[in-house]
Write a structure and sequence with these properties.
Length: 157
């Protein structure tokens, strides 16, 4: 193996190990008064994408602890807004994990939906992953790795 090949391989492996941002989709109102999946382990930079799939209005609000407290959060870190989306029936809403909170609690503020269990939890993790977001993260890491290898090759040759 040539030294060049080995250095590309090294760059590639380093890139693979870098945690890249993932998009985590949460379906709002799938199967009733639910977020699916409600709970995820997230990393800084991940985008949480809520997509409305139900047939009644739902909102997405951040709350303080404990999970399922069903009250808008007060004084979120970084001046974040407790309202991620007001009530609606279609479309989407998203926010990016800023890494300031170890745990983000969220719920639907429409009617008694939250009291009926329509809430979820996003936990910040350094390395570990949830099943739901690992596929996205790996493909993101792969494309980044490939991009950097192509970049290195262009530079060296
Ligand atoms: C989400 O996690 C909380 C604990 O943090 C747990 O009580 C709840 O049952 C979980 N919800 C789902 C839908 O798994
Ligand atoms: C929070 O977001 C809601 C809905 O997007 C908006 O109406 C409200 O003005 C915002 N509040 C602050 C303090 O930015
Ligand atoms: C759903 O939400 C929209 C936007 O806030 C509102 O205009 C509409 O009246 C709501 N529909 C119901 C059935 O509550
Ligand atoms: C989210 O909704 C906007 C319009 O409200 C649309 O332009 C955009 O494509 C949607 N994004 C996703 C990822 O569905
Ligand atoms: Cu709801």
């Amino acid at each position: 193996m040539s030294r060049f090949y080995l250095s590309f391989l090294a760059v590639f492996l380093v890139c693979l190990s870098v945690v890249s941002a993932a998009t985590i989709e949460i379906k709002v109102g799938e199967g009733g008064l639910k977020f699916v999946d409600a709970n995820h382990t997230v990393n800084k930079g991940d985008m949480i994408l809520f997509t409305w799939v139900g047939t009644v209005n739902h909102s997405v609000m951040r709350s303080d602890a404990p999970a399922g407290s069903c009250m808008p959060a007060t004084n979120l870190k970084g001046g974040a807004n407790a309202t991620i989306s007001g009530p609606k029936m279609t479309g989407n809403a998203s926010f990016v994990i800023d890494g300031l909170d170890q745990t983000i609690w969220y719920y639907c503020g429409v009617g008694q939906h939250c009291q009926n269990g329509m809430w979820g939890v996003l936990k910040l993790a350094g390395g570990s992953d949830t099943k739901a977001s690992s596929a996205n993260r790996i493909s993101g890491g792969l494309s980044l790795g490939i991009l950097m290898v192509v970049g290195a090759a262009t530079f060296l040759f």
